[in-house]
Protein 1
Amino acid sequence: MVKRLLRWDEPTLDGVKLRCLRRVVRHTCPQCGVGALFDRWAHLRERCNHCGLIYRREDGAELGSMYLSATISQLFAAAVFVLLWVFTDFGAWDGFAVGAPIVLAFCYGFLPLSMALWTAIEYLTDIASGAWWARPR
Ligand SMILES: [Zn+2]
């Protein structure tokens, strides 16, 4: 059903998904792949400076990014603390002293990727629903 929304000369949705994900991992616009997603660390631009795609459409648009980041970070934290518990003989405070900085560094590093992935998810949702402004390139 989704593929019927695409014209015959447009790329398939699967191809668009892969291209879109590659672009956001490089922190570029999911639509054109040229414009930058961020103007500084973890600060999403309002729109693409090349094709005009609006990244931040309304207040709270990044709420999904926050949930994605929180979920992945909590899974990472659980993995770190389980690994420390299984493979070391650290006590609770030593484990916390070693694990907490690792988890905080991961959270800090993952935030832009989370925002980029959420921007891609919103863009792909717009394509699938046939939004007129979403034109895969
Ligand atoms: Zn763009």
Protein 2
Amino acid sequence: MTTTPTTLNGSMEKPIYLDYNATTPLDPEVLSEMLPFLKEEFGNASSSSHPYGWAANMAVKKARKQVADAIGCEPKEIIWTSGATESNNMAIIGLVRSFLPEKTHIITANTEHKAVLQVFEMAEELGAEITVLPVNEQGQVSVEQVVAALKPHTRLVSLMMANNEIGTLHPIFEIGKMLQEKNILFHTDAAQALGKIPIDLKTLPVDMLSMSGHKIYGPKGVGALYIRKQNPPITLKPLICGGEQEGGLRPGTLNVPGIVGIGTAVDIASKKMTEESTRLTKLRDQLITRVLKNCRGAILNGHPTERLPNNASFSFEGLSADVFALGLSGLALSSGSACTSASGKPSHVITAIGRPECLARATIRVGLGRMTTDKDIETAGDKILAMIEKNSKISNI
Ligand SMILES: Cc1ncc(COP(=O)(O)O)c(C=O)c1O
């Protein structure tokens, strides 16, 4: 459940936005780069015979280079999509379909976003054999676990770079290295990691990587998939057909304003990353220390150090209901992932790290971002502590 964006207990004041893992506001600089392509530069990027098309085509080229530069790959290795959900589908189903009807085994973990877990279910329906690994209580899988799950016909391992609910980072480098030595392909969903932690595909042994515009202050409805083109090139079967765009892998007229938006957003995020991550890590840790120190029943979900700079997830022992029903108002944050919240079920991620259902329900995710100030985090701490004090006897403040 998320707080309503407009009113708060009858007042017109908006809550403090702390849901940056769900989505981010559009950067004004991104908007101003996009605007000409929503107005006068409306050309189709595939129109090669006039200046309208040329302008659109050049803008797409520039954005492809911006994304490629940010992650250390070649522009030709970037395919535009509608977001990380589509990128994950393209990578996993596209690869599975290119192997079938040969025996095909694929591996993932049980804390993945539904945009991977449900894709694995679909791959199974298509005839693939799937393994969904359990994570440890900090939300990680180990290299040894992946090695133990491999079969002679394992074609792909897909593990997220950073978890959207608890912020945990998997040991992607070590797992990728091991898979590379065994010639098994490795896909990572980097929707949450992009722009927050360094990604350099010149050294990171990853074959396919999913990205999303709206998690990095870019527009919604646009994303990208990196597909390694060398040693050896990866062949995917397209999910849809009907044109030659993106080498026939993703046909359909390109979303030029969106592509310009994600290109600019990635560029800005890369430039700001070091400074912003340091700032947010400090604020995140202040909040974590304060909550854990002052609420005896509070538990931090996820890894204590191997986590996103902008994420703090807490469960509260002794709380009997949803935190928002218990009066945590004034903060726009999530009680699970935005996607899970809509279903009303306890989060599959929180239960996967071993929390019982009641604890999974008494969980909040605080997602920090560019607009988050020191004062916001102080207020968030005040409100969380006040809610705990009011609703249980476990707080010692
Ligand atoms: C880890 C992860 N993967 C995939 C997605 C889906 O991304 P998109 O909204 O771009 O399809 C999200 C968004 O919540 C996410 O956090």
